Amino acid sequence: MKNVIYCFSGTGNSLRTARIIAARIGGAVIVSVKDGVTSGLAAKADVVGFVCPVYEWDVPEPMKEFAERLEVNPDAYVFMVATYVGVHGRCFETIDAILREKGTRLHYGKPLRCVASQCVAYEPFPSPKFMVPRSDRFARRIGDNIAKRRMNEYPKMSAITRNRYEKMMVPFLNVQHEYDKGFYTSEDCVGCGLCSKLCPRGNITIEDRHPVWNHKCIGCNSCVVYCPKKAIMFSTPEAYRKLNNIITRRLGLPESRTRYHNPHITAKDIMSRREAIVPKKR
Ligand SMILES: Cc1cc2nc3c(=O)[nH]c(=O)nc-3n(C[C@H](O)[C@H](O)[C@H](O)COP(=O)(O)O)c2cc1C
User: Fold this and answer.
1) What is the CA radius of gyration of the chain?
2) What is the dihedral sign for C-alpha 196, 199, 200, 202?
3) Is the same domain home to 106 and 42?
4) Cβ(32) – ligand 1 distance below 6 Å
5) How far apart are alpha carbons 80 and 91 in whole angstroms?
6) How much is the average pLDDT of 189-193?
7) CATH number, domain with residue 182
8) What burial class does residue 281 get, using C-beta atoms within 10 Å of its C-beta: 0-12 exposed, 13-18 middle, 19+ buried?
9) Which residue of 4, 64, 217, 271 sits 20 to 30 Å from the alpha carbon of 201, by its own alpha carbon?
10) pTM value?
C-alpha cells in the first residue's frame, strides 16, 4: 500500500479520525505510534500522514520523537490532522520543522475539534452525542481534501498563545514527569493488567496485582478511560498543586466524573500496532 498514516491516540479521537481519512483516500496502513515502534513505510509511500491530539499546545512527545526518527520519501505528499479542543498551539509548526530537516515539508495541515477527553481535569465536552458525529463529518471532509492532494497554509500558533506559552505552559511542562504521582487505584482494581498494555510509553508495571506508574507519563488518559472497572483514580500531585494555576486547580478524578473515550474505538484498537484500512467497494 502506498499510503501510510502515523497515529498517536490516547482516548480514540485521533484513531477514529485516521480510520476515516484512510477510507476516504483509497486505503492506508495505520501505524500506531508508541515507544518501540519503528516503520520504514514512509520512505517509499506516496502519501504520509500524521494524526494525533494536541497536548499542551504542541505535539505529544511520542509523536515528536517518532517523527524525528522517521525517514520520509521527499516526493511524498505529507499531511497532518491534529484533534483538539480549542488551542492547537504550535503543533503543525513542530512537525513541519522536523520534516524540513529531512528535505520535505507539511503540504496540508488541519485541526479537528473533538470531544475534550482529559477527564482528570474536566467532564468531557461538548456532549459526545453531538460532537462525535460532527467530528466524523469534518474528518470525512478533510479526507476528501487529502484525496485531492489539496495544499494549504497550516494554522500557526496565535500571538495570544505564543505570549502566554512561557508563563502558562513552561512551568507545567517542567513538572510533567510528576503527573503520574497522582494516580492510584480504588479497591475495584482486579489487577487485570490492561492499563499496562495500553500505555504508549510502557510506563505502567504490574506489581502485587496492582499498576505502578514509573514517571514517564504524558497524561494520555488511556489507562483511566479504558479501565474496565473504572478503578484508576487521580489526585493532584504536590508539584502540580504548587503551580496553583487555572489548569491544576481543576485536576482530580472524583468517582462521579465521566470517563470518555471515542465510542468507535476499543481498548483492543488502542493496543494494536498496525492495521490496514481497505476502502469499501461502492
Ligand atoms: C494531556 C492532554 C493535553 C491536552 N492539551 C490540549 C491543548 O493544549 N489544546 C487543546 O485544544 N486540547 C488539548 N487536549 C485535548 C485533546 O487534544 C483532545 O481531547 C484530543 O481529541 C484527544 O485525542 P485522542 O482521543 O486521540 O487521545 C489535551 C488532552 C490531554 C489528554
Assistant:
1) 18
2) negative
3) yes
4) no
5) 9
6) 97
7) 3.30.70.20
8) exposed
9) 4
10) 0.96
